[in-house]
Amino acid sequence: MSHTIMQRDYQTEQRAQAYIDEVFSQIKQRDPHETEFHQAVDVIFKSIKPALVKNPAYIDNRILERLTEPERLITFRVPWVDDEGTVQVNRGFRVQFNSAIGPYKGGLRFHPTVNSSVVKFLGFQQIFKNALTGQPIGGGKGGADFDPKGKSDGEIMRFCQSFMTESSQHIGPDTDVPAGDIGVGARELGYLFGQYKKLRGRFEAGALTGKSLNFGGSLGRKEATGYGTIYFVENMMKDKGLNIEGKRVVVSGSGNVSIHAMEKAIELGAIVVACSDSDGYIHDENGIHLETVKQLKEIENRRIRDYVDYHPQSVYVEGCSGIWTIPCEIALPCATQNEISGSAAQTLIKNGVKVVAEGANMPSTTAAVEQFIASDILYAPAKAANAGGVAVSSLEMAQNSSRIAWTFEEVDKKLKDIMTDIYHNCSEAAKAYSAPGNLVVGANIAGFIKVADAMTEQGVI
Ligand code: NDP
Ligand code: 2IT
C-alpha cells in the first residue's frame, strides 16, 4: 500500500472515531441520567467504525445523530381506579424510534423500573434487531411504571384500558404496532386490543401482535422468542461441530421467553438445571420439570420457590444473581437487563460455559460482554438471539393483512429459516469487517448498514 493511501485510510479512520466520540459525548451531556440508553448506544458505536470508514457518506449525512434521536417520544398520564375505589396514576411511554424500514414495532413493558432511559434503550436496540429479521418493521417500544404484581384482573383491565385510551391515537397497523414484553402477555394484549377496537370503531387486527388465537393472533408467536433463541444456539453450535444434546443449561427468568427457551432446549435433549424469578432461583441437577414451572408461573401465578414443594430433591436459593455460579455449558439470560455482571461472567467462564445466548434484552453488562468476547465464548447478543419474537410478530401482521392464518408448522419453519438467516448474516458481516466469530460486531454492523442505507435513500427527514 502506498504511503498516501495509508495516510488517507488513517485520516478517514480518525475522522470516523472523532465523529463517534463527538456524538456519544453529546448524547451523554443531553440526557445524563439515561444510563441504560447510553449503554445500548455504546454497544452500537463500539462496532460501527469500519462501516463509517467504508462509507463516509454516513458521516456527511449525520446518520448517528439522527439514529440516536427518536422520531417521537410520547410520555403520558395513565390514571385508573383500583379495587378500593382509589385513583392511581402511572406514567406511560411510547418511543417511536425509527421508521426507515417499516412501521414502528416493539413491545410494551409494565414494570416499576420503566422510565425514559429503559424505554429508549429498548427502542434503540429494537431498530437493529428488527432490521436483522429481514422483515419490513421499524423500531419502537413502550410501557409504563405500573407493577402488575398483586393486582386483580379488574385492576389490570382498567389499567390497560386507560393506557390504550392515550396510545390509540399514536398506533395502527401501518403506523406503530405494539406487542408484549415484561409484564405484558396475552391477557394484557386482549384488554389493550378491546379498548383499541372500541375507540377506533374498526377491527384493525394488525395494530397489536401477540394477540390471542381467538382474534387474530398467530400460532407460534407465544413460543417464538424462546424457540428462536434455541434455533440461534443450534446454528452457532453446528458451525463449531457441536450440538445441544446432553448439555447442561442454566436459564434465568421463568416468564414467556424463559419457559419456551427451556421447552425447546429440553425437546432437543439438553438438561436444564436451573431457572429463576425476581425473588430467587431453583437448582435441580436432574433436570427441571418444566410442567411444574408452567403450572406455577403461567397458571397459578405463584413464585418459583414453590417448585421445591413438588420436587424435594431440588434447591431454592433466595436472590437472582447466584444462578450464574451453577456450572453449565449453555447460559441463557432470559429475565432482564444487566443481570450478568462482569464477575458473574468470569464465574461462568471459569466453570466451563461454552455458549451464552441472550433471550432477554441487554442482560449482560459491558464488562460481561468483554469477558465473553475475550474468552472466545460462543456469544449471541440479544438483537440477534431474541429476534424470533418480533419476527413472528411481523408474520402475525402479514397474516392479519391477508386474512389468512398459517399453521404452527408453517410459522415454526419460517422462524427457523429467519434465525438461520440472521446467524449467517451476522457471521458474514463479522468476517467482512475483520472480526470473524464476533457476533456483536456482525449483528451491529449488519443491522446498522441496512437502516443507515434506508435513511440515506429517504433523504434528510
Ligand atoms: P415475562 O414478564 O413473561 O417474564 C419475565 C421474567 O423475568 C419473570 O420470571 C420475572 O420474574 C423475571 N424478571 C423480570 N424483571 C426482573 C428483574 N428486575 N430481576 C430479576 N428477574 C426479573 O417477560 P418476557 O419473558 O416476555 O421477557 C423477558 C426478557 O425477554 C425481557 O428482557 C424482554 O425484554 C425480553 N424479550 C421478550 C420478548 C417477547 O416476545 N416477550 C422478545 C424479545 C425479548 P417475576 O415473575 O418475579 O417478575
Ligand atoms: O424485545 C422484543 O423484541 C419484544 N418484546 C417483542 C416485540 C414485538 O413487537 O413482538
Write a compact overview of the structure shown:
The protein has helices at 3-30, 35-45, 49-54, 57-60, 63-68, 116-132, 153-167, 186-200, 221-239, 256-267, 290-299, 307-310, 342-350, 366-374, 382-385, 387-402, 408-432, 439-457, and strands at residues 72-81, 87-98, 104-110, 138-144, 176-179, 248-251, 271-276, 280-283, 315-318, 330-332, 355-357, 378-380. It is of the alpha/beta class and 461 residues long. It is globular.
Structural overview:
There is one protein chain. The protein has helices spanning 3-30, 35-45, 49-54, 57-60, 63-68, 116-132, 153-167, 186-200, 221-239, 256-267, 290-299, 307-310, 342-350, 366-374, 382-385, 387-402, 408-432, 439-457; strands spanning 72-81, 87-98, 104-110, 138-144, 176-179, 248-251, 271-276, 280-283, 315-318, 330-332, 355-357, 378-380. The protein is α/β, with parallel strands linked by helices. Strands 9-8-7-6-10-11-12 form a seven-stranded mixed β-sheet, sandwiched between helices. A five-stranded mixed β-sheet has the order 1-2-4-3-5. The protein contains 18 helices and twelve strands. Residues 180-183, 225, 253-258, 277-279, 320, 334-336, 359-361, 386, 389 line the site of NADPH dihydro-nicotinamide-adenine-dinucleotide phosphate.
